[in-house]
């Protein structure tokens, strides 16, 4: 969907100057942004810095035949914002590194930045620098996001305790269903039973995910969450990280997983259980968090009054029980790992 013709060659320094003119904003915290050997920022006294980086690789994280440069920029920003959100921190400064193949034009890079910066603009994140290189083959995009949080105030993966309720924001499985709609090469098998509105919704959830920054800040500020993680690889794998770091087990009640009407319609049309999409689906960028049993009512009340969608999906158990799925009739079975794994699961997810 990007132009594959090199009609408008890229010149490194004019491109950087244009990006600086368009996207650099003044901030009292930015002492030096784009233009020196490194950026210099000051952070509020006593705050802790929260740092994350994410790499997006053509063919692995996106396919230029089925997506747009603007969506790639948006998703890259949201992937990083989501990690800062999962720590309960405020995102502040962004570094962007690009390796650009000869097939892309300057216009494509500007579209990518429009997607990036519109996502960052929602959270007052400042672009402070980056790096630009040519690539012989494929587009690579690496973002580093710098956030802050008051000292000692942070949501770790390691704080879950036996008895805590397990919650997620939003709905699960939409992004994977959207990706499958985009990449399935046999449209005759998928289009008929699914209304255009549902199809558009799922594709949009894949192309334009929303990082739950406000929710993360709320959970941290109120100290209602004992642990948190963002769902980038898929529930079945990401929950496992929380359990390993917290040295606990978990029950997940499959019937309670929040599934959007569109994802349910997709699952019906394909005769699959929507829970399999929710467990496997990566890139939803929802938050999974745990809450002490005594705080659950308070959490649910506050979520309602703030307009945040949160759903209880299970409970933390002692480590010896491992991770189990709990059926409506009370039977338990081990929760299989079906989430995205680099080096093994690419075809399964895109096919
Ligand atoms: N190549 C690496 N070198 C050093 N540390 C790494 C490397 N890759 C990952 N890590 C660290 O491992 C931990 C888990 O990383 P991972 O990328 O799985 O995070 P994630 O939030 O689950 O996924 P993602 O942000 O990529 O969607 C993080 O602390 C990360 O900084
Ligand atoms: C073309 C194409 N094929 C497959 C996928 C699915 N996918 C790729 S990486 C990933 C997990 C998150 O990555 P990371 O852990 O690196 O943040 C997922 C779910 C996609 N988005 N595009
Ligand atoms: Mg993460």
TrEMBL record:
<protein>
    <recommendedName>
        <fullName>Thiamine-monophosphate kinase</fullName>
        <ecNumber>2.7.4.16</ecNumber>
    </recommendedName>
</protein>
<keyword id="KW-0418">Kinase</keyword>
<feature type="domain" description="PurM-like C-terminal">
    <location>
        <begin position="161"/>
        <end position="319"/>
    </location>
</feature>
<comment type="function">
    <text>Catalyzes the ATP-dependent phosphorylation of thiamine-monophosphate (TMP) to form thiamine-pyrophosphate (TPP), the active form of vitamin B1.</text>
</comment>
<keyword id="KW-0547">Nucleotide-binding</keyword>
<feature type="binding site">
    <location>
        <position position="83"/>
    </location>
    <ligand>
        <name>Mg(2+) 3</name>
    </ligand>
</feature>
<feature type="binding site">
    <location>
        <position position="232"/>
    </location>
    <ligand>
        <name>ATP</name>
    </ligand>
</feature>
<dbReference type="InterPro" id="IPR010918">
    <property type="entry name" value="PurM-like_C_dom"/>
</dbReference>
<dbReference type="Pfam" id="PF00586">
    <property type="entry name" value="AIRS"/>
</dbReference>
<dbReference type="InterPro" id="IPR036921">
    <property type="entry name" value="PurM-like_N_sf"/>
</dbReference>
<dbReference type="InterPro" id="IPR036676">
    <property type="entry name" value="PurM-like_C_sf"/>
</dbReference>
<feature type="domain" description="PurM-like N-terminal">
    <location>
        <begin position="35"/>
        <end position="148"/>
    </location>
</feature>
<feature type="binding site">
    <location>
        <position position="37"/>
    </location>
    <ligand>
        <name>Mg(2+) 3</name>
    </ligand>
</feature>
<dbReference type="GO" id="GO:0000287">
    <property type="term" value="F:magnesium ion binding"/>
</dbReference>
<feature type="binding site">
    <location>
        <position position="52"/>
    </location>
    <ligand>
        <name>Mg(2+) 4</name>
    </ligand>
</feature>
<dbReference type="InterPro" id="IPR016188">
    <property type="entry name" value="PurM-like_N"/>
</dbReference>
<dbReference type="Pfam" id="PF02769">
    <property type="entry name" value="AIRS_C"/>
</dbReference>
<keyword id="KW-0784">Thiamine biosynthesis</keyword>
<feature type="binding site">
    <location>
        <position position="230"/>
    </location>
    <ligand>
        <name>Mg(2+) 3</name>
    </ligand>
</feature>
<feature type="binding site">
    <location>
        <position position="37"/>
    </location>
    <ligand>
        <name>Mg(2+) 4</name>
    </ligand>
</feature>
<feature type="binding site">
    <location>
        <position position="61"/>
    </location>
    <ligand>
        <name>substrate</name>
    </ligand>
</feature>
<dbReference type="InterPro" id="IPR006283">
    <property type="entry name" value="ThiL-like"/>
</dbReference>
<comment type="pathway">
    <text>Cofactor biosynthesis; thiamine diphosphate biosynthesis; thiamine diphosphate from thiamine phosphate: step 1/1.</text>
</comment>
<feature type="binding site">
    <location>
        <position position="53"/>
    </location>
    <ligand>
        <name>Mg(2+) 1</name>
    </ligand>
</feature>
<comment type="similarity">
    <text>Belongs to the thiamine-monophosphate kinase family.</text>
</comment>
<feature type="binding site">
    <location>
        <position position="157"/>
    </location>
    <ligand>
        <name>ATP</name>
    </ligand>
</feature>
<keyword id="KW-0067">ATP-binding</keyword>
<feature type="binding site">
    <location>
        <position position="83"/>
    </location>
    <ligand>
        <name>Mg(2+) 2</name>
    </ligand>
</feature>
<feature type="binding site">
    <location>
        <position position="283"/>
    </location>
    <ligand>
        <name>substrate</name>
    </ligand>
</feature>
<feature type="binding site">
    <location>
        <position position="233"/>
    </location>
    <ligand>
        <name>Mg(2+) 5</name>
    </ligand>
</feature>
<feature type="binding site">
    <location>
        <position position="131"/>
    </location>
    <ligand>
        <name>Mg(2+) 1</name>
    </ligand>
</feature>
<keyword id="KW-0479">Metal-binding</keyword>
<feature type="binding site">
    <location>
        <position position="54"/>
    </location>
    <ligand>
        <name>Mg(2+) 1</name>
    </ligand>
</feature>
<keyword id="KW-0808">Transferase</keyword>
<dbReference type="GO" id="GO:0009229">
    <property type="term" value="P:thiamine diphosphate biosynthetic process"/>
</dbReference>
<dbReference type="GO" id="GO:0009228">
    <property type="term" value="P:thiamine biosynthetic process"/>
</dbReference>
<feature type="binding site">
    <location>
        <position position="340"/>
    </location>
    <ligand>
        <name>substrate</name>
    </ligand>
</feature>
<feature type="binding site">
    <location>
        <position position="113"/>
    </location>
    <ligand>
        <name>ATP</name>
    </ligand>
</feature>
<feature type="binding site">
    <location>
        <position position="83"/>
    </location>
    <ligand>
        <name>Mg(2+) 4</name>
    </ligand>
</feature>
<dbReference type="GO" id="GO:0009030">
    <property type="term" value="F:thiamine-phosphate kinase activity"/>
</dbReference>
<dbReference type="GO" id="GO:0005524">
    <property type="term" value="F:ATP binding"/>
</dbReference>
<feature type="binding site">
    <location>
        <begin position="130"/>
        <end position="131"/>
    </location>
    <ligand>
        <name>ATP</name>
    </ligand>
</feature>
